[in-house]
Amino acid sequence: MAPRGSTAAGTRTVVVTGAGRGLGLATARRAGEDGYRVVVAELDAERGEKAAAGLRAEGLDAHAVRADVADPGSVTAMAREVAALGPLHGLVNNAGLADAVGGKEFHEIDVAEWDRIMAVNARGPWLVARALLPQLIASGGGRVVNLASDAALYGSPRLAHYIASKGAVIALTRAMARETGDHGVTVNAVAPGITEGESTERVPAERHELYRLNRAISRPQRPDDLTGIIAYLLSEESRYVTGQVIAVNGGFTMH
Ligand SMILES: NC(=O)c1ccc[n+]([C@@H]2O[C@H](COP(=O)([O-])OP(=O)(O)OC[C@H]3O[C@@H](n4cnc5c(N)ncnc54)[C@H](O)[C@@H]3O)[C@@H](O)[C@H]2O)c1
Fold first, then answer.
1. C-alpha 239 – ligand 1 centre gap (Å)
2. Nearest C-alpha to atom 38 of ligand 1 is from which residue?
3. Residue 98, Cα to own-chain centre: how many angstroms?
4. Which atom belonging to ligand 1 lies closest to the Cα atom of 119?
5. pLDDT digit string, tens, across residues 84-138
6. 59: exposed, middle or buried (Cβ count in 10 Å: 0-12, 13-18, 19+)
7. I want to staple 148 with a disulfide (CB 3.0 to 4.6 A). Which of 13, 21, 169, 241 is the partner?
């Protein structure tokens, strides 16, 4: 059987934003293993180049493109580079500020910090999807997967700006799904729980403990616990699933 990302017309591309490390890198690796050409769209150019080189060393078809999802000009330039790589199949809106964002109660957060989180986490996925939608439609349809967070479902304290941004991602997922269904484009969100990685190393021990005690599956969550559902949402099998939010958190939240 041909790999998923290959068609008679050639290899199709999946763009993963923020794929220089963490969940994005794991997602890019899995998409590459599924046969897609992957674009590591990353703010930190050196990190993105290194990640793409690592994926190529594993035999995968990976390209690094520097992109700041909060900057409309940078997103437009990235979309042009993506177009040059051939037909676009998917976008994983993964880039987000998740590292050391917590700790303040909502009345202590200042406006600049609020705006920075919203610009990257909420406006970013919209800007990138807006720039790439014409390519998804031109290639006959495709898939958008947005990284939300179960913090927005649970209502974690001392993370109000982050939670609001991820709530916006969930609402945006639904809005985009309504508008793109008849273009053959599905849009879904995945809401991870607290996942092992660089971004969660500084999360306070009591928050890890809260998750451990309240998950149905108490072991820690790893990035590769998420890649299967994202692979499914990028695949042909998910063609009739759209506008959904899928919590992947060992049953920490159930709804
Ligand atoms: N790790 C978790 O526990 C967890 C839980 C729920 C949701 N999430 C979400 O999953 C996504 C990935 O999380 P992670 O833990 O892998 O984060 P991470 O901090 O390890 O990686 C994020 C990557 O995005 C890049 N990035 C940051 N700002 C960017 C921008 N403006 N443009 C392009 N790239 C940018 C960073 O350079 C980094 O390489 C985020 O959206 C996060 O909110 C993570």
1. 26
2. 18
3. 12
4. 31
5. 999 999 999 999 999 888 899 999 999 999 999 999 999 999 999 999 999 999 9
6. exposed
7. 169
Report how far ligand 1's centroid is from the alpha carbon of 95 (Å): 5
Determine whether the shortest distance from the Cβ of 23 to ligand 1 is under 6 A: yes
